Amino acid sequence: MNIAVIGASGFVGKNLIKYLLSNTDHNILALALDAESIFVEERYVNRIKKINVDFLNDDIEKIFTGIDVAYYLIHMMKGNKNDFYNKEEKIAEKISQALKSVNVKRVIYMSGLGRDDEKLSMHLSSRHNTGNILREYVKEVIELRASMIIGEGSISFEIVRNIIDKSPIVILPKWSKTDTQPIGLRDALLYLEESINLKINNHEIIEIGGSEKMSYREFIKRYVKFKNKKTIIIYIPILSEKIAGFFLNFFTSKDQACVGNCMLESFRNEMIITNNRAKELFPYITPDKVEESFE
Fold first, then answer.
1. Domain that holds residue 36
2. C or N terminus of the chain, fewer CB within 10 Å?
3. What one-character-per-residue DSSP string does 111-167 give?
4. Cα-Cα end-to-end distance for the chain
5. Of 23, 125, 20, 115, which is closest to residue 70 (Cα–Cα)?
6. In a domain, 239, yes or no
7. For residue 223, how many C-alpha atoms fall within 13 Å in the half-sphere facing its CB?
8. pTM of the model
9. What is the C-alpha separation between 113 and 91, in angstroms, rounded?
10. Does residue 247 belong to any structural domain of this protein?
């Protein structure tokens, strides 16, 4: 089977390519601004084609010719946090039209948890809007909605890890009481791979997560305990997102801080599983506990 990974150089994309090459016999088309920088073991080089693509500006009309299934893993939060929604919408339209023009049957899209009947952050609204656009053009769309993915290179997880590793004191704002359901990278990759041949009638929105839901504060406490750190955690409910953003700028890299500042508003929204659809469709997947994902 010929698989396209759109947004191949990000955290999920790189790990997905490595996983698919080592666990399946699929051929991979890796597409990203810097796709050629993706490391691939010598034994797999004949099964992957890497193409640098600027999805906003390049002609992509025929780039998906011969593709059976496409993974959609694009986000634009490293740019201006005030215009990433419009950019993500434009790219989703352009790619969806290109997928339809060559009759790509299925798209597997990694999205974000959050209830559509709530007031969602711009980040989560954009995630869900992209899913709506894909469904307008592609026959089968599997939208996997997840919270934080725990693993080395995950920006949301790296932000937590950097702050804990670099600061003896962590100050948590009001949103730290919000519930979330983080998922380990191993489980996320398994859901993504199993979605290739999943039998569905049309489209599916599937909420995936780890085995436990917890507040962000509890997640941080459990990571501190796992690392055997003596971190002092202070909860200040009046702490503003602007001040929280300052701590990101101070303790994390520029790219992490940029994405993190776009995501801060999302922490107001509960990101937990609200139905049993994942268990119904993937009864053989038993997600890890968070400590297992830290390892």
1. 2-149+182-212+270-289
2. C
3. EE---TTS---HHHHHHHHHHHHHHHH-SEEEEEEESPEESTT-HHHHHHHHHHHH-
4. 32
5. 20
6. no
7. 23
8. 0.91
9. 21
10. no
pLDDT digit string, tens, across residues 183-224: 999 999 999 999 999 999 889 999 999 999 999 989 999 999
Residue matched to tokens 């940029």: 258
For 12-27, the DSSP string reads HHHHHHHHHHHH---E
The count of structural domains within the chain is: 1
Contact 31, 9 (CB under 8 A): no
DSSP secondary-structure letter at 77? T
> Could you tell me how far CA 171 lies from the centroid of its own chain?
26
196 CB burial (10 A radius; 0-12, 13-18, 19+): middle
Q: Which two tokens stand for residue 149?
A: 């993915």
For residue 11, what are the contacts with CB-CB under 8 A and spacing of at least 6?
149, 151, 153, 154, 155
Cβ(287)–Cβ(180) below 8 Å? no
For residue 43, the domain's CATH number is 3.40.50.720
Please report whether residue 173 resides in a domain: no
On whether residue 261 sits in a domain, the answer given is: no
Q: Which residue from 100, 89, 91 is spatially nearest to 141, judged by alpha carbons?
A: 100
